[in-house]
Amino acid sequence: MSNSDRYILGINSAYHESSACLIDNGQLVIAIEEERLNRVKHAKPAKVDNPHVLPLKSIQLCLEKAGISFQDIDLIGYSFNPEMRLSKNKDLQEPCIDGDWGSESGEELFYRKLQEVTQILSNFAGVDVSRKFKWLDHHLCHAASAYFVSPYEEAAVLVVDGIGEFESTTLYKGKGNKLSKLNSIDYPNSLGFLWEKMSEFLGFSEYDACKVMGLASFGHYSYYYNSFKEFINTKSGNFSIDNDIIKFRINDFSALEELFGPRRIAGQELEERHTDIAASLQKITEEIILDLAVDLHHRTKSNNLCLAGGVSLNCVVNGILQEHSSFENIYIQPAANDAGTAIGAAYILWNQVLGNSKNYIMDNPYLGPEYTAEEIETVLDNNNLKYSYHENIEEVTAKLIAQGYIIGWFQGRSEIGPRALGNRSLLADPRHPYMKDIINMKVKKREGFRPFAPSVLAEKADEWFKIPNKQLSSNFMLIAYDVLKNKQKTIPAVTHVDGTSRIQTVQSSSNPKYHKLIKEFEKITEVPILLNTSLNKLEPIVCSPQDAVNTMKKANLYYLAIGNFLVDNTWSK
Ligand SMILES: [Fe+2]
User: Fold this and answer.
1) Interval between CA 145 and ligand 1 midpoint (Å)
2) Mean residue pLDDT across the chain
3) To 5 degrees, how large is the angle CA 134–CA 135–CA 139?
4) Of 97, 139, 342, 551, which is the most exposed, with the fewest CB atoms less than 10 Å away?
5) Are residues 321 and 432 part of one domain?
6) Shared domain check, 449 and 323
7) What is the mean predicted confidence (pLDDT) over 61-73?
8) Which of these three, 353, 387, 412, is where a domain ends?
9) 172-209 burial by CB neighbour count: b if 16+ within 10 A, else e?
């Protein structure tokens, strides 16, 4: 390795949310999740027999975007360390399924499959890549994915997810181009797994933490708080979870049912009890993370906090950290989940291993593929769609939204991370009192309680929301803020039941087209805000123009604004 190493490929595939990114002299050229290309949510399930299923479509796209071949890649960072995982997981005394996670045969299979990764990459590259390839600790990759692309030269870093190799929570200090570990908490003491298991208990899938967070606002935490305390211990800077009760690795909810009553089966009616359980889970999580932040601040004395790991997508916790922790600044990058570890893997090599200074700030999520007007038009023609070209597509679209239409909005480069942030979005009028229900029930076929988030012009945000301290991560829809009391009735479709809103502030510098659209909407309505949700229906967020057309048809949208074209789908109604 040398300082002349220029192109670094980052890869995540060990569990799920497979992704790849490419950096060129420290600049992030492209970052893409495989699910956007293979059209499978989370790209693949996290299983012991599939870590070697690599995001090859994403890797190919990285090469195409940079205009290079695989031979030009100088280094490859992979966001997992197989040795570290194998050395610890198989010896735990806990109930598990033979051949699955935690069992000797399951862990050894996972290890063997990981060993195939370099050979598969070499086959793909047409040359032996093993000398360029580096295994990297999963949590270090999470930490790097936030700190090395943050605006700070020093920061405290908190990583909270289900499990890395063995760690579930890790504290770091970032200074210059180095990250050093301060403390870690190991599996089974895992907030990420706690949320997965409780999501299943409440009748959702393990991936539905976001739904449970939305549900929590409807409940009261006091009823089940002590039930959680039966198996979760919190102490200063630490916490533990009794795995004899939660039983993370088997499908057994009996001990939880003794504490909370019968688990909800998917499709059963949601009762008050379920919202109260969700509220208690949210409350305990807030307390634990705030306590970890106190410990981290004590250890680092930093004003800056970087967050990563799937639990960092909990925007209510993030809002509380902003308001109640001692950190002045908080940075979370939009792919805080495992998808972001590909970015972390690349930057560990660039900064920490090669010794380069920090030279990139991730201030926008628009890092995926984009399509030319010709490519878009070809797709529209091939689908026999009725469409028109508009020089001022923003004005035309804003008028339609103000008239009450729900519009598909497809522009520029796709976003990295689980949120659509104005380039692959479904947009609507936030003033409409029934818009939330209409989109949930008719368009997206989601549960009726689920809230929608607003995009607001950055320069107008504090006229509508209580924003104590502006954070870069507000651009990524990752922090919940209170909607000002006198504004709540004006924007009911994006005001959650607890009076908060998970806002996205939109800067003209990072997304001029989306900024202009909201400004056009403001001209008509005096409201500088749009309801923004992802352009998809029960599938990954759309990536290509054909995906957008498919979603327009599946979701029965009347209009799709794609590039400067407006597709009129009303004739098919
Ligand atoms: Fe992770």
Assistant:
1) 11
2) 95
3) 130
4) 97
5) no
6) no
7) 96
8) 353
9) bbbeebebebbeebbbbbbbbbbbbbbbbbbbbebbbb
Asked, for residue 412, whether it belongs to a domain, the answer is yes
Number of domains making up the chain:
3
Between CA 247 and CA 219 the distance in angstroms is 25
**Using 50, 70 and 90 to split pLDDT, how confident is the model at 408?**
very high
Which pLDDT score is estimated for 1? 59
Q: How far is the CA of 378 from the centre of ligand 1 (A)?
A: 39
The whole domain housing 136 covers 7-141+335-353
Which CATH number goes with the domain that contains 128? 3.30.420.40
* pLDDT for res 471: 83
Residues 196 and 282 in one domain: yes
My answer on whether 201 and 341 are in the same domain is no
Question: Residues 542, 562: one domain?
Answer: yes
Q: What's the gap in Å between 442 CA and the centre of ligand 1?
A: 34
pLDDT digits (tens, 9 = 90+) for 474-505: 999 999 999 999 999 999 999 999 999 999 99
How far is the C-alpha of 320 from the C-alpha of 325, rounded, in Å?
8
Contact (Cβ atoms closer than 8 angstroms) between residue 12 and residue 58: no
Rounded to the nearest angstrom, the distance between the alpha carbon of 368 and the centre of ligand 1 is 21
Distance 371 CA to ligand 1 centre (A): 31
Is the domain of 554 the same as that of 470? yes
Instruction: Give the phi and the psi of residue 441 in degrees, each rounded to 5.
Output: -80, -50
Q: How far away, in angstroms, is 277 Cα from ligand 1 center? A: 25
**Whether residue 416 sits in one domain with residue 556:** yes
Summarised one tens digit per residue, pLDDT across range 208-262 is 999 999 999 999 999 999 999 999 999 889 999 999 999 999 999 999 999 999 9
Q: CA angle at residue 137 from 133 to 140, to 5 degrees?
A: 115
In the chain, DSSP finds a helix count (H) and a strand count (E) of 19, 23
Residue 88 sits in the same domain as residue 192: no
